[in-house]
Amino acid sequence: MFEWLRRFFNKRQAPGTRVLNYLQPERALQVYIGIPANVNAPRRWVRVTGADGDTIRCEDGHTVNIRFIQSFIVAYSNGELLDWKRAFLPWPEGIHEPEQIKPVVDTITLDVLRAGERLVRVTHGMSVAQRAGKHNYSTTLTNTADQRVKVLRFAGYTHTGGSMYRLQTITGGYFTAEQFRAWYGLNEREWIDPGQSACDPENYGGPGALWAYFCQTESGEEFVVGAVAS
Questions:
Q1: Residues 183, 53: Cα–Cα separation, whole Å
Q2: Residues 129 and 199 reside in one and the same domain
Q3: Range of the domain at 144
Q4: What's the pLDDT at 2?
């Protein structure tokens, strides 16, 4: 997530290429580039609306070839910062870092997750942005139940020995249902329909990290499900 992403993103990848990678039609990300685009200290941010090949389109009418882009900001639909380059200007209104909260002490075992496996399947795959790498991957939740399900909160956990895992996140506590909707592409939708999936294509946590999701079915049954990244 925020600080982790800043460390792991491939710094050899050109800023314009990174911007282009985020312009996926199915994701409601907020993308801004600095204008003038070809300088290290731009005067203002302009929101990106799309791309035609290697040309970025902006909402003020600007079109910029990706090779000229020097600075950018990418945020989730809820305004939380996802990635950036040379973001020295004040950020656009509504863009912010994930809120730090009072640390939560929580542990979980893999046994707790088994009951939820009949309702939701959690899988880790290749990261969309990075294409490969043991510390970055996509994470997908697929509803295998016969009714809708929603995520109430979720978190990453580190292995502490045996079957025990301890909560460890960048905010110090659980991520919220709102964050799940923004990061996993649901946006304003609260529920995952039967047979449907929700995916974070740029998750991060390293080998052995456990991602656990505290969920509820439409009938009110609560359960926990998750998977360890290999």
A1: 26
A2: yes
A3: 107-228
A4: 39
Query: What is the structure's pLDDT at 1?
Result: 41
Q: Which residue has the tokens 């910029």?
A: 64
Residue 222's CATH number: 2.60.40
Judgement on whether residues 63 and 122 belong to the same structural domain of the protein? no
Tell me, what amino acid is at 16?
G
> Would you say residue 145 lies in a domain?
yes
Does residue 98 lie within any of the structural domains? no
pLDDT at 97: 84
**How many structural domains compose the chain?**
2
Contacts 24+ apart (CB under 8 A), 62-68: 62/35, 62/37, 64/33, 64/37, 65/16, 66/14, 66/16, 66/17, 66/19, 66/20, 67/14, 67/16, 68/16, 68/37, 68/38
Specify the pairing of strand 72-75 against strand 30-35: antiparallel
The per-residue pLDDT for 181 is 94
Residue 149: its pLDDT value, please? 98
